[in-house]
Amino acid sequence: MKSKNVDVKIPKSQLEAEDRGAEEERPRESDSNILDLSSDYPRDKHISIQRHLADLEKLADLREDERKPCPLCPEEKFKACYSHKLHRHLQNLHWKVSVEFKGYRMCICHLSCRPVKPNLAGDQTLSKMGAHYHCIICSATIVRRTDMIGHINRHVNKGETEFRFSTVRAPKSSYKVVKESATDVQVLPNHSTPQKTDSYFNPKMKLNRQLIFCALAVLAGERKPIECLDAFGATGIMGLQWAKHLRSSVKVTINDCNENSVTIIKENCHLNKMKVKLNSREEDNGETVGNGEENSDTIEVTKMDANVVMHLRSFDFIHLDPFGTSVNYLDSAFRNVRNLGIVSLTSTDISSLYAKAQHVALRHYGCNIVRTEYYKELAARAVIAAVTRAAARCNKGIEVLLAVALEHFVLVVVRVLRGPTPADDSAKKVRYLIHCQWCEERVFQKEGNMVEENPYQQLPCDCHGSMPGKTAVLLGPLWSGALFNTGFLRRMLLEAVQYGLDEAQPLLKTLVSEAECTTPKHFSIHSPGDENKQGFAGVFVSAEWFLWPCCGAGKRRSEEVLWGAAKRQRAEHSTEHPPFYYNIHRHSIKGMNMPKLNKFLNYLSEAGYRVSRTHFDPMGVRTNAPLAQFKTVLMKYSTPTYVGAQAEGPVHLPGEIQVGEEVPAAAVIKVEEAEVAEDKSGVAAAVVTESYPTRCAAE
Question: Where is this region: Disordered (predicted)?
Fold first, then answer.
C-alpha cells in the first residue's frame, strides 16, 4: 500500500490473517441491533438505506449535551438540535415513510444527491431541493414513494433481486429447519413470501412436489440412471427429495440464478449429508452417514439462468416451477430434452389461467378464454396447447401423462416424442372450442381448413335458433386430446404407496378413475384380512386392478382372473375419456331436490353412458352424455318440492307418483323456461298457477 509516496510492504500471511479475523467478527456484529457501518457496509451503499432505526441514530451520533444535525437533511431544511428532537425527526420524517425490501429500509433523503431542474431564471441554487429515495438494487433515485414501490416490483418481476453492494447474510440462528418427506431444509422466517425472501418455500405445494416425485420415480424405473433438472431450486427441497429417495437411479442438478438461493441450497445439501458438485469439483463437508460410511450421493448445484442451463445440457427429466407463468422457458426446455424424456411444469399464474385476467392469458398463452363451469380444465388445456406449440417448433411431439388444476397451481406432465411425425400429430390436436353461452354446451371445432357457413350447427343444442343474436363464443386454441395416461397414473400410484406419500394417493386414485371414465369401484382401501388383495404400506389394493396396462404390477391369482381383468381393461381403454365435465349444481332445477352425486353417477351409467367424477370440481361429472340427456336424467331422478310463486306451500308428491318415474317433457320445458326468464331479467317472469303433481296426474 502507498502512503505519501512511500511504499509499505505488508506480508501476505498478515493480510490473510486480517481477512480471516474480519470474517469472524462480522457474524458477531450482525447479532446486535447496532451495526458498524465501517466494517459491515461497503462505501458504495447510500446512507439512507439501513436495517434498523438505531443505524440512523448512530449516523447522527446522538448525545444529550450537544446539538447534532440530521444526516439525511441539509442544514437549511433542518437545523441542528438536541437528541430527543432529532430522534423524533428521524422516526417520523424518515423511518415511517421508508420502503422495505429484504430487511432493508430505503428512507427518504433530502440531501443534494439528486439533480434538480433550474428555475426560469436559470438559477439552480435557488430552486427547492426535492425529497427522493435511493433504489437498493440499481441505485436509481425516485421521487414518490408509490413510484419507488412499483420500481422495486419491476425488479422482482424481472428476477433482479441482487443488491449492487455486498450484504451480510442473516445469522444461522435466524434460520429454521422444515422437514418434509424425510428431507430437512433451512428457511428464513419469512419463507412464505416470495417478494421478501430468496429461500421461498411454500408448504401448500407439498402435493405438487409429491406428484412430480412419483412421475420421476416411474421414469427412473424405465431407464437408469437419468439426468434430472430442477430449474428453479429456491431452497432445493425438490431436488433433495429426488436424490435422497431415488439414490443412484438419478443424477440431480439444482439450478437457481440467485446467489443467496444457491448458498442456501449448498447448506441444505450438507444438512442432508449430500455432496455438492460445482464446476466439476466436489465440495464435501467431511461428515459421515450411518455407521461412519461416507455417502456417495452427489448433487450438482449451478448458478445461471434457467434458459442457459437448458440450452447447454441435455436432460431426461426437466421440471419448471417459476414464479408465475412458465411459457418463457418452454423453447429452451424442449430444445435439448432427450427422446422419451419428461417435461413437467407448474404454472401459478392463476388469475390469468382461471379467466380473471383474460388479456394476460391472451398475451402469455395466445389463448382466448372466458369464465365457464369447466374453467379449471380450460386452463389445463390452454397450458398444454402452449406446450404443444413450443415442442412442435423443435420438431418434437408430446404425450400428455398428467394434467392437474387445483386451487394454487396447474401442473402438466408430458412425455417428449422426437420427430416431425409426432410433432404434426400433436399439433393437429390443438383446436378451437365452440362454447354456447346460454346452456353452456361445448364442442371442439372439426378438423379442416374450410370455412363453416354456420358453425352453430356443430353444437348439439338449438339455442341459436331459439335465441336472438349470437349465442356462442370461440375459445382457444386448446388441447383437444386426452389429459391422462392411465398406465402411467397407475404406476405413479404404485410409487406413491411404496414411498408412503399419503397426500398424493387419494388424488391419484381419482385421476385413474377419471382417465378411465368409470366409477372408482375396482380399487379401495380394505382391511389386511381381505383376500385377493395386494398390500403396500398398509394400503390394500385389488391385485387385478394393476394388471392392464401397467405391466407386472400385480400378483397372479388365477388364469381366469388374469384373462377377465385384461379383457375388461382393454375394452375400457379402447376410447379416450370424454372432454370436459358438467357441474351438477349448475344444471339443477330450482325447486327440485337433486339425488346424491354417487347415485346420480349410477343412474347415468345405467342409462348407457360413460361417467366418472373429476378432480377439477368436487361436484363435477365427466360423461359422454349430451347436456340435454344429462338434464333429462337429472330431472328424472330429482324429487320436486314445489313449483310456482303462487303456490300456497310446499306440495309433496302424491302416493301414485313415485320417485324414479319419467317426468313429462312439457313440465321440464316449462320449468326451464321459467328459470331462463328469471335468470335473464332478474325477476321471476313466468308464474305457474297449477301445482306440479296436479299437472302430472292430469296428463
Answer: 1-39
Query: For residue range 61-115, what is the model confidence (pLDDT) as tens digits?
Result: 776 678 888 888 888 888 888 888 888 888 888 888 888 888 888 898 888 776 5
In residues, how long is the chain?
699
Residues in CB range of 472: below 8 A, 6 or more apart: 434, 435, 436, 437, 455, 456, 459, 463, 464
521 — pLDDT class (breaks 50, 70, 90): low
Checking phi first, is residue 491 left (phi over 0); if not, alpha (psi -120 to 50) or beta? Answer: alpha
In a 3-state reduction of DSSP, which class is residue 396?
strand
Contact 297, 275 (CB under 8 A): yes
Question: Three-state DSSP class for 688?
Answer: coil
Domain with CATH 3.30.56.70 in the chain: 577-640
Q: Which residues contact 298 (CB under 8 A, 6 or more apart)?
A: 274, 275, 276, 277, 282
Every domain range in the chain assigned CATH 3.40.50.150: 177-279+297-446+469-487
Mean pLDDT within 595-606? 93
CA pair distance 196, 260, nearest whole angstrom: 13
Q: Which has the closest alpha carbon to 242: 261, 262, 269?
A: 269
Sign of CA pseudo-dihedral 259, 265, 268, 269: negative
CB contact at 8 A, 436 and 472: yes
What letters, b where the CB count within 10 A reaches 16 and e where it falls short, cover 349-371? bbebbbbeeeeebeebbebbbee
Please state the rounded mean pLDDT for residues 277-282. Answer: 57
Amino acid at residue number 220: A
For residue 477, is the peptide bond before it cis, meaning its omega torsion is within 30 degrees of 0? yes
CA distance readout (Å), 574 to 482, 531, 549, 570: 13, 30, 12, 6
Closest CA to 102 of 176, 188, 41, 27: 188
pLDDT in tens, 133-145: 888 888 788 888 8
Calculated CA dihedral for residues 47, 137, 156, 115, nearest 10 degrees: 80
The CATH number that domain 177-279+297-446+469-487 falls under is 3.40.50.150
Q: What is the DSSP letter of 692?
A: H
CATH of domain 577-640: 3.30.56.70
For residue 101, what are the contacts with CB-CB under 8 A and spacing of at least 6? Answer: 136, 137, 152, 196
- Residue 617 clears pLDDT 90, i.e. is over it: yes
- Outline where DSSP puts E strands in 90-197: 99-101, 104-106, 133-134, 141-142, 176-180, 183-187
